[in-house]
Design goal:
Blueprint (H helix, E strand, L loop, with lengths): L9 E4 L4 E5 L10 E4 L2 H9 L6 H20 L5 H16 L6 H14 L6 H31 L8 E4 L14 H11 L4 E5 L6 H12 L4 E4 L4 H6 L5 E4 L3 E3 L4 E4 L2 H10 L4 E4 L5 E2 L16 H4 E2 L2 E2 L12 E4 L6 E4 L2 E3 L3 H10 L2
Parallel strand pairs: 4-5, 4-7, 5-6, 7-10, 8-11, 10-15
Antiparallel strand pairs: 1-2, 2-3, 8-9, 9-14, 12-13, 15-16
Helix pairs in contact: 1-2, 1-3, 2-3, 2-4, 2-5, 3-4, 4-5, 5-6
The structure holds 5-S-methyl-1-O-phosphono-5-thio-D-ribulose.
Length: 355
């Protein structure tokens, strides 16, 4: 069932030809929209995480391609030169973050949409704008389908669902993947509640998940990352649902660092552990999770909180942004095509054949 969420994370504004997005760097203190007007600014918005979350950065990439097309069309009306320069911009946009495959998927989808067409440059620009809007609208519809398939898995009335990072409306165009499951479940049962873990180092769980659930009136309890085992041991968690940044053809899943720990703890306590993600997050070109590129992020994310150092100076720090949960720990992958179950090699292939 559909739940009305107030949040639209990213939107193409037609009369201005800009991409308008929620600035996620100032949440939870402010809810501010920013207009991105150039492909260079889009690259920076993705890299600095003004926009974040795999499906949301995919749409940001698609909008970035439309902005790039507008820029190139001011300089040339030669279709071949236009396509050549657009290809360069596509590679540039894709290099903004490495792990979430939705970015590569959406940018490539935009380029492939026009690469063989015989239209003039201005027509191709228009096609890219319209196609970007289509991908944007489809994202919400896909999330609602994921939400409905996932809601059917909630084991009991009044269930407590634990999630990690933010795989919500703010990680997508709207509604969310893991939090889409929560929203659909909440539409049927108002006694559902969420446990959100903090998600160090960038605290997407504390800053963004609690913010968006509170905004939509869904009960949420914040815990720190190390507390999940304690609450599972007490029988207080009925289900874990998280998002994904890239899923290999065998079901191994990259998601925000800490997801792997959570999956181990959930399996130990026999709490069902699900991934919720669109098919655009599945990279069938790679066989296993070992091939997924893991983003290395700055040491300051670990050593500082809100600009204040929290540890001794001159120490070693390693900060991988994501980890890979082996397929064997995942009970099911909730997609817009339904729930995929092990063996994932087979169920993923089947889902793509009917895509
Ligand atoms: O570094 P982030 O905040 O972009 O990481 C986001 C996540 O890991 C999400 O769980 C994932 O992208 C799924 S979003 C529906």
């Amino acid at each position: 069932m559909d739940f009305k969420s107030k949040i639209k994370t990213i939107e193409w504004i037609k009369d201005k030809n800009v991409s308008r997005m929620v600035d996620q760097l100032v949440i939870p203190y402010e809810y501010k929209l920013v207009d991105i007007t150039t492909s260079g600014d889009m690259y920076n918005a993705i890299k600095t995480m003004i926009v974040r979350g795999a499906p949301a950065i995919g749409i940001a990439g698609a909008h970035g391609m439309a902005l790039a097309a507008l820029e190139i069309a001011k300089k040339t009306q030669d279709p071949l030169v236009f396509l050549e320069q657009l290809k360069e911009k596509a590679e540039f946009l894709k290099s903004s973050r490495p792990t979430a495959v939705n970015l590569m998927w959406a940018v490539d989808k935009q380029y492939d949409y026009i690469k063989n067409c015989t239209k003039n440059v201005n027509e191709m620009v228009q096609m890219l704008i319209e196609h970007g809007i289509k991908l944007e609208n489809e994202d919400i519809e896909i999330n609602k389908k994921i939400g409905d398939h996932g809601a059917a898995l909630v084991p009991k009335k009044g269930a407590t669902i634990l999630t990690h990072c933010n795989a919500g409306a703010l990680a997508t165009v709207g509604y969310g993947t893991a939090l889409g499951v929560v929203r659909s479940a909440f539409a049927n049962d108002k006694t559902i509640q969420v446990f959100a873990d903090e998600t160090r180092p960038r605290q997407q769980g504390a800053r963004i998940t609690t913010f968006e659930l509170a905004m939509d009136g869904i009960p949420v309890t914040l815990i720190t990352d190390g507390m999940s085992g304690y609450f599972m041991n007490k029988g207080m968690i009925d289900m874990v649902v998280v998002g994904a940044d890239r899923i290999a053809a065998n079901g191994d899943t990259a998601n925000k660092i800490g997801t792997y720990n959570l999956a181990i703890v959930a399996n130990y306590h026999k709490v069902p552990f699900y991934i919720a993600a669109p098919l655009s997050t599945i990279d069938i070109a790679i066989e296993t999770g070992t091939e997924i590129p893991i983003e290395e992020r700055s040491r300051e994310e670990v050593t500082h909180i809100n600009g204040k150092r929290i540890c001794a100076e001159n120490i070693n720090v390693i900060n991988p942004g994501f980890d890979v949960t082996p397929a064997g720990l995942i009970k099911g992958i909730i997609t817009e095509k339904g729930v995929l179950y092990p063996p994932y090699e087979k169920s993923i292939r089947q889902a793509f054949n009917t895509y």
